[in-house]
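Supplementary Note 3. Input sequence used for the single-chain structure prediction.
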Amino acid sequence: MAVTLLLLVLASGRLLAASVTVEALLPNTAVLMINGQRKTLRAGESFDGVKLISADATIALLDINGARQRVGLNRNITTNYVAPERREVQIPRNERMQYITGALINGRNVQVMVDTGANVVALNTRQAAALGLDYEAGMPSTLETASGVADAWVLNLERVEVGGIPVEGVRATVVVGDYPTTILLGMSYLQHVELRERNGVLSLSREW
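The predicted structure, written as discrete structure tokens, is reproduced below.
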């Protein structure tokens, strides 16, 4: 079965620096040297990540890359800001109305089916053995399947990653038998991402 996965890196976790000097102040107006460029800002205006909130004759209240700073006349402030990284993976729906994609479980390649109705990641004993999971060291349990009640083990997966979006310590259930035929990507992973569906494409995204 062909699996299609589109990965979008919307913003890299890059370090941004801002150097700001307050050169002149008037009521709700400030003349600022921002990263080597002189700009006159009125309250509410911004330039290069620096926004003037308010000003009087002695102090400017600035929002610099999302952090508020009070800066006096002829004072300089240099800040470092790590821009958040946001990743998004898009999974097209197949002819069976399923969202199937590639994933990494504990660093090993697998196929998974997105299932918001599953509380946890679910896989069968054959799949677990192929991943090298010592599932019998987990907590014994039972699970209701289409074929009846099945024995199972509950454990934590070290890491599950879909489209470059990793989650660690993901709860999973290993079911004795052949169910499920495709590993189910349940809410123990999905609760950590934002889900959006549009025109037959499911998007998973996360910012950190």
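The first strand starts at residue 6 and ends at 11. The chain has two domains: 15-82, 86-207.
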